[in-house]
Design goal:
There is one protein chain. This protein has 480 residues and is of the alpha+beta class. It is 61% helix and 10% strand. The strands form 2 sheets. The protein has a 7-stranded mixed beta sheet. A two-stranded antiparallel sheet has the order 5-6. One of its GO terms (biological process) is negative regulation of bacterial-type flagellum-dependent cell motility. Residues 455-480 are annotated as: Disordered. Keywords: GTP-binding, Membrane, Nucleotide-binding, Transmembrane, Transmembrane helix.
Length: 480
Amino acid sequence: MRVFFSTPFRLLREEAPLTNAVVIFILTTLFYFLGAMMRLVEQLSLFWPLNAVMAGVFARYAFLQRWHYYLISYAAMLIYDAVTTNWGIDSLLINFSNMVFIITMAQFIGAKRHQMLEAPEPTSVLMLFGYCLLAALLCGFFGAIGSVGINGQGFWPLLAEWFGEQFSTGVLILPGVLTMSWPHKPLQLSLQRSIPIVAVVVSVIASVVIGGAGSLAFPLPTLIWCAVRYSLPFTSLITLLTGAAEIILVSSRVIDISIASPMGMSHMFSARLGIATMAICPVIVSVSVETVNSLMRQVSLRANFDFLTGVYSRSGLYEVLNQNDKRFADKHVSVMLLDIDYFKSVNDSYGHECGDQVLASFARQIQMVLGERGVVARMGGEEFVVMATTLDSLEGVQLAETLRLSVANHPFQWRQQTLYLTFSIGISSGKTNTWNLTERFNALLETADENLYRSKKQGRNRTTHSEVAVKPSATSLPDN
């Protein structure tokens, strides 16, 4: 079940190392710039997206996990610092800590790539959560050592700040980076579908108005609502924006949670851990919903389509009709009941495996000739039904004859032997209505069944519409 590592962008390609190097350098510089813009004076950045984004990029594109690509990213960080700061040699260790997070996450996810694809998706999310904890701790250790000489803080407060920031941004950003893909169609948000997003905004406003540490959890129910209603990538985006907004609001004291910590930790450390823990919940819910939806689609597919022939099953055809398919509602339609002549002799002479292959080939041939004019369904055994839009009953008979002759002149190959089939058709035509499409189909099918009986009784390999049978033409093959 492929929730993480969904269809990637084709910006990076294994066969284009120079392009890869340029893209990595540009991405590193861009997100370093964004993080630097939120860097407090002589302090850590309020929100540092670089490490999580680049870790996600290296994890998704396994061919990038080479030391020369890592060195290009590291060089981009050093160049940016050399131009914009006066940190000097301290920049080597600070940016090394960034690379520790990036490489650790990329290697962890890469090593468990297959397990994360095959394990239940909520477990994959929890694995990602654990990876962020360890990578943030390693990153914080080296980052705190490198930062001691810059802002004068002690090692332990710096470790807490580094760890909290890296952990929160990793949990907020990585699910979105790992699941991001080009949308197959434009996102359509009606007023009703937009309500969960409005609820998220209202919950954040409530956090500002009410304040206190508990207010950070206000958006959680609305984020879970989003997880149920929207796709995983979109839910990850909303969660990221909500978490980032809360971090900024807490830092600027718009949301006031300044309560003394028994361990002497800053309120931002506590806020970041709380927000990260909250952010993982809607992601787990969204992954679980996608898992359930995927299973439901598989069950629906198996129920609505015949496994052997690939055409609709009886239940699948009625599902189409129950949805008032616009192809058939308020149209003149022809319902044809097809029965392969003497099919039992194929099973008796060549075996059931041959019979299965013949049924599958027969269905493909009918579907190919029918095209977009209608649908084919297997009603059971060697009996199929075709429902097609036609101008009148005469065109319906002509289409039925086209189908019959195409099969009669189509050779079926089986183990160096060539088989020819014929089949009998009963057809009924009439106008449908939107409000009773299924009932109208049943009535036409009943008449088609009666006409199929007449075709068999009159010698098979023919089409019968009402009381008139269309005899085989000169180009038809003799009965089997």
